[in-house]
Amino acid sequence: MADKVLMKGNEAIAEAAIRAGCRHYFGYPITPQTEVAAYMAKRMPKIEGGVFLQAESEISAINMVYGVAGAGFRVMTSSSSPGISLKQEGISYLAGSDLPALIVNVQRGGPGLGGIQPSQSDYFQATRGGGHGDYHLIVLAPASVQEMADLTIKAFDLSDKYRVPAMLLADGTMGQMMEPVELPDSVDTLKVEKPWAVTGTQKKREHNIVNSLYLAPEKLEQTNLERFERYKAIEENEALYEEFMMEDAEYCVVAYGITARVSKNAVIAAREQGIRVGMIRPITLWPFPKKAIADVTDKVKAFISVELSMGQMIEDVKLASSCKKPVYLCSRVGGVITTPEQVLETIKKTAGGNE
Predict the structure, then answer these.
(1) What are phi and psi of 2, to 5 degrees?
(2) What percent of the chain has pLDDT over 70?
(3) Residues 98, 141 contacting (CB under 8 angstroms)
């Protein structure tokens, strides 16, 4: 029987991870995600096989994740923007070794130390890999506390399925807000066989090796090509999105996370004023729901990308629409959140200029 409780977004991530079978957490405190680590510190020691370790640095934490992932266990770390930057080399090693793991980024403003208020300015870093080399992360963007929990579980499942590290990309608002959340029953993932894992052979098989170093260029090339075949399958099968009032829309707002919640109110208000506008909310930022955007491109007059950055997701909207229609930006930065009124005003200006 699922439990329904009132929780902070950060706490929902942690509890959902535990119920998804995660028994190893390595991290380092940084706002606005510290509650994830605090919750794990309280809960993990009470769970059979549970391990919580506050590492001496973000770099140490991500390399501990690498070790446990190589042994085939579900493992996670969490941080906020500057901390995620420190983890990038280790994330690249995870991707290069084809290891599943969950990395949670509850974003704050930047660049540099920035501020502790919410932001969405790590979009490029998350969707373009972030570290060195050719690779992708599966990136999921929740828009409610319920999705903070649901997409945490989804991220673990997809990561295991494709042997690709996954990132839950939220923002400080989602991490700190409280809402009712229905939590699923716990699942036992310890018995799931991972034949590639480094678990000891018991003299029943050949040794497994977890590695991202290939000295022969032909071998490294082949490994990358094989990995991108998996990426292709992810793009074809796992893109998630929500459509809102798009049936007869002449204008399309594209927004994710907290800005999608703000934009939904603006869309409703615009409809009340006779403007036929709808919204597409990407749930996976990688793979980006390109087909959903492409399918409406010939039906709408313009797109509006709403984001808490100087304009990052807007590039993916332009690419997905093949630049056939204008794409306008509605944004706030530095920790300031767009308001429904601001989004509505952008919708009205866009509609007025595209009659």
Answers:
(1) -70, 150
(2) 98
(3) no
